[in-house]
Amino acid sequence: MSHKHAAPARFELHPQLASDTQPVARFPLCDVLLMDNANHPWLVLVPRVAEAEELIDLDDAQQVELMREVARASRVLQTVFQPHKLNVAALGNLVKQLHVHVIARFEDDIAWPRPVWGSADAQPYSPEALIDRIKRLSSALEA
């Protein structure tokens, strides 16, 4: 008697995240993406775990690794941009796929002191600025 097993789900980046971001680096657990919004230095870390929507969908080791990678991304934003504050959030109200925002905030940024969501229209990077930002971040993330 043969049993049909459903193929294990494969990780795929949510289409909304794919359209709003550019790849910057690949950490052991997460893809590191740059939000295409020049208003804020803004990274998004997406664990490559199929069907993960909540932090608790990761096993203990993955949760620890995610925090390591969030800290690593945070340190890079702090080093490269010297922000007044780092905002770190996993909301997922619109995009359920687990992803963590790491955003460098400044007291003179367009949304300060409010959250970045809904406070100002995203300003896409110019192609040159996007290339420059990705180069700066990817070299700092690799270091």
TrEMBL record:
InterPro entries: HIT-like, HIT-like_sf, HIT_Hint
Coiled-coil segments on the chain, per record: none
Superkingdom, natural source: Bacteria
Pfam families membership: HIT
Positions of the HIT domain: 43-112
One GO MF term attached to the UniProt entry: catalytic activity
Signal sequence annotation: none
Stated name of the protein: HIT domain-containing protein
Source organism: Lysobacter daejeonensis GH1-9
